[in-house]
Structures are given as C-alpha cells and as structure tokens.
Amino acid sequence: QAQLAESGGGLVQAGGSLTLSCAASELTFDSYPLGWFRQAPGKEREFVASISRIDKSTLYADSVKGRVTISSDTARKMVYLQMHSLKPEDTAMYYCAARVGAQYTYWGQGTQVTVSS
Q: How many CA atoms lie within 13 A of 82 on its CB side?
C-alpha cells in the first residue's frame, strides 16, 4: 500500500508563495512516479505537475507553468511543489499522487490552499 502525506497548505494573499510537501514511504517513492493534482470546489480534480523518479524530468499544466516548480529529494523521499504568484483561482485541495502504469492510483489526503484576493 502506497503511503503519501501532504503538508504545507494554508491561506495566502494573491501574489504570494507557498511550498507544499509530500512525504512518501520509501517503497512508494522508489517505485512510482509522483505528481501533484488539485481540486477546487465544484470542479474536477486536475493535474498540476509531475516528476520522473528516473531522470527528474518534469511536466506542468499550462495553468501553472512558470509559477510552479516540482522537485524531489531522493534521500528524504519527499516531493515538493513550490508555488509563486498565486492567484485566487489556485484555491483548491492539493493532492500528491503516485502513478502505477498509466494511472495515478495512490493518493494522499490532501492539503488545502486558499488564495485571497
């Protein structure tokens, strides 16, 4: 069973920054690519960013490109999401997820990000 735990969410003013953290179990971190998703109230969950565990190549949603950086720490089994120039539309529950094959199968409980205007 994959284990993922997000932290770092909170309330921030528009234009501000936040860094989210995802703590993965060793098995999870070493076995699966990890990514970040978000879900705003009344909307579907959407992809934010992902990082390859092999070469650490990254992929970003167009909506966050240039404002968000995903990174990982192999020794600590952590994945981070640095967010800058936050907008009210970035308000959502943010989830860390592990991809098994073609699908993100394992999910954390989420951390809430609220951006005030």
A: 5
d(CA 78, CA 34): 10
Q: What is the 3-state secondary structure (H, E, C) of 81-114?
A: EEECCCCHHHCEEEEEEEEECCEEEEECCCEEEE
d(CA 30, CA 91): 30
Token pair in block for residue 77:
């089994």
Q: How far apart are CA 102 and CA 20, in angstroms?
A: 24
Average pLDDT over residues 70-92: 96
pLDDT grade, residue 63 (50/70/90)?
very high
- Residue 84: partners with Cβ closer than 8 Å, 6 or more residues away: 17, 67, 68
What tens digit of pLDDT does each residue of 28-54 get? 888 899 999 999 999 999 999 999 988
